[in-house]
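Q: Entry one of two.
A:
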Amino acid sequence: MDNLVALATDPAAWLALVTLVAMELVLAVDNLVFVAIVTNKLPAHQQARGRRLGIGLALVMRLALLGTVAWLVGLNETVFSLFGFDFSWRDLILIGGGLFLVWKATKEIHHSVDPEPTPDMFDDRKPTMSFGAAIVQILLLDMVFSIDSILTAVGMTTHLTIMVIAVVIAVGAMLVAADALAKFVNQNPTVVMLALGFLLLIGMTLIADGFGHHVPKGYIYTAMAFSAGVEGLNMAARRRRTRLKAQAQ
């Protein structure tokens, strides 16, 4: 209790909390895009439950990982060197997660542009994934993002309480926004390709980070925000043309 009171009256602790919450919320965008895309492969009546369960279990996993901070820090130690690169367990996890995202996004882009009708993750009439498989994929990707964010958080503060509060706030925001984002993606088909492009970008960034080439996240999210803004203008233009066409008739 005394520790909590001390943190509550420490301006540096509040600054660390605000910074960590902002970082976790930014990283939550990656998770939400992936969660929306994966759960759209489920039957319509399971999609909302899949999103809530996947994100809820992700919260439990993140809190469990926070309890093993000392072990996580050890993941930065070099395991082996190859072709002039030093690889740690963290690097291997990031590379593996990035490769999975690139494979997933490429596979679904192929389905979207293939002239032959094939089942894809956005076709609600033909669910192509089991409920359990969707949850497992959400947890695997969240583990990758969690390890990266927690290791970053360790470098910003040594207070476990602040890390826990930041994680709970970020995951709570994900729970609130998940259904709305998935519905938005379903109602706007052109957003599908943009979301898949985001996954490709995030996947390549994770791979580059695993090989020691850190890309500032500010560049990545600025590019994503710009692309989303352009797509928003396109959507507004299409809606206006549709209204004008309806009025002309």
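Q: Entry two of two.
A:
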Amino acid sequence: MKRVYVNEEWCLGCHLCEYNCAFAQTGETDMAKALMGKKIYPNILVESADNINFAVNCRHCDDPLCVKNCIAGALSKGEDGVVVIDRDKCVGCFTCVLSCPYGCIAPTEEGVMHKCQLCISTSEGTPRCVAGCPNGAIVFCEER
């Protein structure tokens, strides 16, 4: 299964992946109009430590603890291997947040959780964080 990976040596820490991710979720065609003055909730986060930039994003685990522990049945893993959230089923209990060993699930202002779903409903095969990375630090490829 293809996953999103980040080459930390190439990541500039520009956070454009975060903006492209948040923009993909809006369904709009103009990024400035969609995001200007709004708090964004990207499904990928760039963190920095010791002058190294790295991304925190869903690993779409082979045996996802978040899916196993979701009390509402809002999380599932499809045949394509992508772990998705049905936000209509999510009750905001934070069990998935506590279960994820990578810290890749977070709440929104509405109280439901969100996470990377590889832009399965908004892209033409390439997640927006990958397509929008100006330095090619984020790649979408088979497991490494």
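A: Comment on entry two: The domain at 59-115 is CATH 3.30.70.20 (Alpha-Beta Plaits). The mean pLDDT is 92.
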